Amino acid sequence: MNDSKKSSVKALYDLMLSALNKPVEYSWLTSKCGSQAAIASVEKKPLGIQSMTLNTFKKYCDAALDGGFEKLDKLRIAIKNKALSGKSEAARKKKNKVAFNRKKLDEAERLRAILICAYTDLNRICLDAVKKSPEYKFDLDRHNELYREHFSLRLVDKND
Q1: Average pLDDT value for residue range 123-148
Q2: Rounded Cα distance, 8 and 40, in Å
Q3: Does the model's pTM come out above 0.90?
Q4: 30 HSE (CA, 13 A, CB side)
Q5: What is the DSSP string of 88-155?
Q6: CB neighbours of residue 143 within 10 Å
Q7: 3 state DSSP class of 49
Q8: 3-state secondary structure of 33
Q9: Per-residue pLDDT reduced to its tens digit, 25-83
């Protein structure tokens, strides 16, 4: 048997053991764990790993590893499952963050609505006061201009 292919299988197996513990660092390898053929086609010449057809890969796994191809395939499946669970956990964290931000935004909108209602009631009180004492009309107009500027709203008078 070809010793370079045996050492290739052993090197890949060792790399897969590392990838099981640190799937993020070995994302290039975890992406190949989706199928038997994909893992057999992994090639990293600097690490001594060469690409093989699936049947050749199975043959050299059986010759080079205790437990043969079945052991390597179980490891491949474990890596794939761990990578998938990691992705779903990241998606869940993102979903929780989005829900938290939505909740905070809704709360801010409610507080804004309460503030506008309170301010509108205060404005009505001011309008009633101006009717009783017309000398404060200029101050009320200045107040209304600030109100429109800050809240981007138009005050509605009883005559409108």
Answers
A1: 78
A2: 10
A3: no
A4: 20
A5: HHHHHHHHHHHHHHHHHHHHHHHHHHHHHHHHHHHHHHHHHHHHH-GGGHHHHHHHHHHHHHHH----
A6: 15
A7: strand
A8: coil
A9: 877 788 888 888 888 988 988 888 998 999 998 998 988 888 888 998 998 999 888 87
Residue with tokens 């893992």: 39
**CA distances, 23 to each of 79, 86, 117, 158 (Å):** 7, 9, 54, 68
The pLDDT confidence band at residue 140, using thresholds 50, 70 and 90, is: confident
Which whole-number Å values give the CA distances from 109 to 103, 116, 150, in the listed order? 10, 11, 15
Over its C-alpha atoms, the chain yields an Rg (Å, rounded) of 35
User: What is the overall mean pLDDT for the chain?
Assistant: 82
| Residue found by looking up tokens 């309008």 in the block | 127
The residue count for the chain: 160
Helix axes 68-132, 3-21, angle to 10 degrees: 30
